[in-house]
Structure formats: structure tokens, C-alpha cells
Design goal:
Elements (H helix, E strand, L loop, with lengths): L11 H21 L5 H29 L4 H24 L4 H30 L3
Helix pairs in contact: 1-2, 1-4, 2-3, 2-4, 3-4
């Protein structure tokens, strides 16, 4: 997966974050086709975790600033995703190999549903005032 202009959410800082997140997700999904060990899963998840903490916080501040009406749902979604990262880390610690597949689905959803649909909704709102 490569970055395209149509993926832009209209805030350069968030696009920069999304490029990094996309690259991590892409690395994971490409490698998981040929099998991933839990050490690598853990490594990628830790990097995503570091990035998303500050990214989510900045998005929440921005949504508050522009008065995005579905901000609370979006914030809840961010929390669920951070919980899911914690769950994946725990499964890695336990040596649970099924987490490789669970993580692939989660990351696929992160890109396709969270960034391309849920994040895109605040861009539409900022552009048009329609939630
Ligand atoms: Fe985002
Ligand atoms: Fe978000």
C-alpha cells in the first residue's frame, strides 16, 4: 500500500503520522503473508503503540477545537484501539501464535475503517461543516 493524496485528512501533521502508521501496517501485512514470529509482531505493535498515543491525543484536541460533533465516539474508538494493542502485547507475552492473524485483521481495519472512514469524517466536517 502506498500513500495517495486522496488519503489526506487536511492536517499535515496528521497526514505525516498516517504515513508512518500506514508503513508499519503495510510492513506487518506484507510479512504476515509469509509468517511472522511473535518477536516481530511485538516490535511492530510497540512502534504503533508509541505513535498512536500522541497521534490520538492530537486528533482529539483538534476535533474538540473544530467542534466535531462525533468526537466522543471517535475518542472511544481510539481507546478501544489502544486496548486492542495492549491485548495483542499480552498475547505475544503468552506466546499465543493465533495473535498473528488477529493482529492482521485489526491492522487491516485500522487502515480501512479508522483512517479512511472515521478520521476522514473530521476532514469532511472541517471542510463543509457537515458531520
Ligand atoms: Fe488518525
Ligand atoms: Fe482517529
Amino acid at each position: 500500500m502506498n500513500w495517495k493524496n486522496e488519503y489526506s485528512v487536511g492536517v499535515a501533521k496528521f497526514d505525516d503520522d498516517h504515513v508512518i502508521i500506514l508503513n508499519l501496517i503495510d510492513t506487518y501485512l506484507t510479512q504476515s503473508d509469509s509468517g511472522l514470529d511473535l518477536k516481530t509482531v511485538r516490535f511492530i505493535i510497540d512502534q504503533l503503540g508509541d505513535y498512536s498515543q500522541s497521534h490520538f491525543k492530537a486528533e482529539e484536541e483538534y476535533m474538540t477545537e473544530i467542534g466535531f460533533p462525533r468526537m466522543e465516539d471517535h475518542r472511544r474508538r481510539h481507546h478501544e484501539m489502544l486496548d486492542q494493542l495492549t491485548y495483542i502485547r499480552d498475547q505475544c507475552e503468552k506466546g499465543e501464535v493465533s495473535v498473528v492473524e488477529v493482529t492482521a485483521k485489526f491492522l487491516h481495519d485500522w487502515w480501512n475503517n479508522h483512517i479512511l472512514i472515521e478520521d476522514m469524517a473530521y476532514k469532511r466536517f472541517a471542510d463543509s461543516g457537515q458531520a
